[in-house]
Amino acid sequence: MKIYALLTSAGINIGLCALFLSLYSVLRKQPGNVSVYFGRRLAQEHGRYRDSFSLERFVPSPSWIVKACQYTEEEILSIAGLDAVVFLRLVVFSIRIFSIAAVVCVFGILPLNYFGQDMQHHAHIPSESLDAFTIGNVKMRSQWLWVHCLALYIVSFSACVLLYYEYKSIAGMRLVYFTRSPPNPSHFTVLVRGIPKSTEEPFTVAVKNFFTKYHGSSYLSHQMVYRVGKIQKIMTNAEKVYKKFVHLKDTDFDQRHRPHIYRCRLCGGTSNTFQLYRNESDLSVKKTDLGHSHSNTEEKECAAAFVFFRTRYAASVASQVLQASNPMLWVTDLAPDPHDVYWSNLWLPYRQLWIRRIGTLLASIVFMFLFLVPVTFVQGLSQLDQLQQKFPFLKGILKKTFVSQLVTGYLPSVILQLFLYIVPPTMMLFSALEGPTSHSGRKNSACLKVLYFTIWNVFFVNVLSGSVISQLNVISSPKEIPTQLAKAVPRQATFFITYVLTSGWASLSSEVMQLFSLVWNFFKKYVFGGKDDPASVPTFPYHTEVPRVLLFGLLGFTCSVLAPLILPFLLVYFLLGYAVYRNQLLNVYCSKYETGGLLWPTMHNTTVFSLVLAQIIALGVFGIKESSVASGFTVVLVILTLLFNEYCRQRFHPVFKSFSAQDLIEMDIEDEQSGRMEEIQQQLHPAYCQFPPYTQDVCDVEIEGPSDVDGQDSSRGLENDFSHPTLPGFPLSRLRRAVSLLSILVKLQNRRSLK
Amino acid sequence: MKIYALLTSAGINIGLCALFLSLYSVLRKQPGNVSVYFGRRLAQEHGRYRDSFSLERFVPSPSWIVKACQYTEEEILSIAGLDAVVFLRLVVFSIRIFSIAAVVCVFGILPLNYFGQDMQHHAHIPSESLDAFTIGNVKMRSQWLWVHCLALYIVSFSACVLLYYEYKSIAGMRLVYFTRSPPNPSHFTVLVRGIPKSTEEPFTVAVKNFFTKYHGSSYLSHQMVYRVGKIQKIMTNAEKVYKKFVHLKDTDFDQRHRPHIYRCRLCGGTSNTFQLYRNESDLSVKKTDLGHSHSNTEEKECAAAFVFFRTRYAASVASQVLQASNPMLWVTDLAPDPHDVYWSNLWLPYRQLWIRRIGTLLASIVFMFLFLVPVTFVQGLSQLDQLQQKFPFLKGILKKTFVSQLVTGYLPSVILQLFLYIVPPTMMLFSALEGPTSHSGRKNSACLKVLYFTIWNVFFVNVLSGSVISQLNVISSPKEIPTQLAKAVPRQATFFITYVLTSGWASLSSEVMQLFSLVWNFFKKYVFGGKDDPASVPTFPYHTEVPRVLLFGLLGFTCSVLAPLILPFLLVYFLLGYAVYRNQLLNVYCSKYETGGLLWPTMHNTTVFSLVLAQIIALGVFGIKESSVASGFTVVLVILTLLFNEYCRQRFHPVFKSFSAQDLIEMDIEDEQSGRMEEIQQQLHPAYCQFPPYTQDVCDVEIEGPSDVDGQDSSRGLENDFSHPTLPGFPLSRLRRAVSLLSILVKLQNRRSLK
């Protein structure tokens, strides 16, 4: 690939980017797109949007970038949560380290590479091959290879220092976030799975007895998990409809457009009519309560429960200690956030999980290797000669310079990009099958899978298939890998540069444009006549964006010393990404749950992996160039980097696994002294209600003190619990409720048809 | 190698074995060797040994085998502890599985292998090459390979079933052993390391404040760890001498030989004289107590302490929960047994440990590879042709059949064996440098290192260097390994058979003979005129014996289907081993500390590794023989075996890491109800006294309730603690004690010279 082709590609991409960003700056000002571009604001701030017509609405402006960058870290923390801050920190880290690398490599190494061979071979710069700017152009046993080695040292050292301070500050932020945030029910709650089945007593009695006996001083109450059947699903859907109707009344958004009358699109009735039915339905529920749903309850109960404790420390201890001598029974974990619970996985038997985990792992690996097919095809495109040999009829078309440049410089990345779109949903599916108990756990697991997938398929397969026919041959001889990589990476550097241009820049444009939401919103609003639904604001797709940013980091590190020409393009990507991601986190996405920066260790480890990979490739290059001194120093560098990683793991990683006794106890004491504890404890039970909030009364049980349980009274008390109408007795009462809801819908429908 | 050579080798070994075992049965009856062959009985049972002269004493008899086999498992458990039972279980497991394998393979596979080629090629059986009995003799694409595959299935399936029940029963035994054993101080004690240094308060105050604040309800007291200097070491040695003198009076062993007068060999004085000095020394200590050793104490304190808790559960919780938000500070672990504490490692700063662990790991790997040199040489011996080419002058000697048979059949194993003797001490040294806090931890770590070392150097290097010139080439192409192994293992089977004969059988003979102890005992007693010292009974060398048994298991599994001729020899080894190890555990070795069967997971994992390796090699063989059906079935088998291992890990392994809340709390309640708790708690402090038992008064501190600490009184109370003469104030008072002890020795010496 020539400089000319690169410039063509860059030109196309810069043009497209500018076009999309201008388009975005116009589109975001249209009131119709508020729900697309300001979803979070609508949902969380209930802000009204002025709908004044002005010419300004149709003039593109970069003011949104300025606005996005004005927010401080504290503001972002309070708006979008710690996860968002950690993600932005990753982008900032990338900007910092690649600025350093760009200065060092572009001014130090690029001239060395270019003038590595005798000058007479050089053509005019625009038609110069890009390979002339890589380390491949440096002479064998060159005296100047120590400069490359020094640059590698500077980059590695700066990266380690920056990483260390990032890890330290994020660990600190996690702690502060945890201690300063308002009391969270999840800190007091433990998810118990693998409750042993017994014929004598139902699960709920077993849980109560176990925790009263072994954690009597700190056990508060518990909430069983119920298995959701078909009827339940129908009912949940019915309730969703119901909620939407209710929302129409409650919301104050868009009041100016359709004041006072909330016409239901389905039936045309006003909300008042509906209000009537709501009361009716409530009444009917109250009337038709039956006391004896014992046998049904037992059938549907799962071997899982949320157990509530009096203090954070007690919950933390209960979640970490082995409960029973059979490790498959009474398995305890800290419960996820109430909003974060992945209810449909909770009923899975704990014994199944290990096999599910292995199964999905194997499935992911198979998927990863099947993906070789399109990648190999794409790879073929960038080597045009091979393509022409295979498809001789293309010769005529490919002879035209522009087409040829387009095919080599642009098409491969686009095709690869299209195939890559199916990866995140697939990995999310695998992760859901794995059986995580929280949405965030599922997303983090998918993030890891997508990360491995991306690095393997974009980096390794492209690099290795460029130089060897079969990748499998290379995997089977690890000793050869450094040399193979060293030969291939500089050669594939041009592909990576175009990849940054197309995939990187384009992904940011498409992210900011939200093309899919925009089209969907248009159809929903103007074709189906739907309404904005503030409840359906998406969460930030960490499982696609984190792997993407980390992949570009990997490309940056591996190419920085070998082919520094990639660095300016990468810097532009990260700078643009900084503005775009800030904007999106502040305006578009909603943070429904929070992991407290749990993704940072993954980011840290991947960055260290990238560094070590870059060093190993450099080692291979120095080996090929027969520079033993540089090789020796690089080996030392690899060892030092690995030691640094191990130190960070020892020093910081445990903080990301659990909180310390010291912090937990101090928070407990503080709450105890301020008298807030009672209030917090009363909120635990409602928070972990399996069924939607408006049926909250179903879950409200009195908090039982351990004094309730003594001698004969306890057994009678338990029986009473079951016949108690307000206990979580899902099936009968809930079925009735569902039927009444459906009957409302039928009535509404009838009314409409009568009219 | 021919059958003839094998029989020669077997003959030599059977002869040697019989000789050694007969010699042992005579030697053990000699009263002079009591301390060599009945060390444990002497030390623990204080049994007297009858010294009646009879002819019976000089007649070899196998009665010791009968005696050793008479004990039940319960008796061994009570005598030698759970670790010994677990080790014997491993031997029993090996006997069972290799009995099954021998029946299946010798009757099913051996004839198939032998008649695999056309009969005309066969010579007379005694001069038949051993290769004729391996799978190498089976024709390509033979119809009979499914029998091999079936045999592999039977062996693998039996092994998994046996392993499952062993794991289950050992996990159960561990639990029973833990709950039924008398209260152990280590269950109530937590070892804290990484106590933060502060200029304001000494470590002991920091520990007290921290645990009173965060574990106030369960914290009992603590005991600082002191750094041992040169003077302390001299003093400890002096005290050891003192203890030996004291022991001479207390012991009732050997009373009939030298009744009433215990003459000290050093000075000739009677024990009465000594008794006088002992009182004197006690007096002098009491007299010269000085009150103010504050500054000295502070200097020598380490950032480590034993913290005692009121209940087992509290200690277990404190050891598992992260204490401070900096994971390098306040690091807690359950304390080892008092007898098991490795005092000289306790003062190591916790921050150093991770780098020490990495360092020793690297050192072990380097040591493993350096060992290639002698192994390659040994390997050369078994392939005589190569040797003759290299050293032409040997041709004359080697032409003699007997010498040739000796060199190929016997010498290689002997040389390898001699080199292998230096491995366990080296690994013990590495493990000590790693910084474990207990002797058992050090031994287990050394056991793992020796295991990896043995498997690598005895199995892999021998196998691979037999077929490829450089091992490193093979490591670098993992895809080739199954094929290479498949080619090499049947070829090296003869070496492994001789290895079982020489190394296996000989190791048992030497184990039972205790040659080194015997010689040392002889010299000590009859040349230097020393006395039996019951305190110096050795502990069982798990770090050499477990890897040895596991290695033979590995050889058995890998060769069973390919070269079944090894199985009878192996069975003899395990049967003999069963008798020998029982005998040694019952009579010779003392169990000073107990890990509760912590080695079983290692044994289980290694056995599964051996199984999978055997299956992979079989896979390679089926591949070479072009039997795709057998290959397919073997792949399934590998996956099933790995799944089985994962299931066992999930189901049983957590029990070996910590005990469950349920068990701990029930034990606590039981002790509480029986009123034993007070008594147990009072014994905690003396148990973890850093300095020898007779100076116990130094460590006796009153147990402080949390009520002691309130307001101003606490600070004064602490000062008092330091000036208290009975507090662990090592330096001055102990120095005085040492000096007085030395002066006693000098006096005794003077007395003698006067006489």
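Residues 185-240+263-336+660-738 of chain A form one domain.
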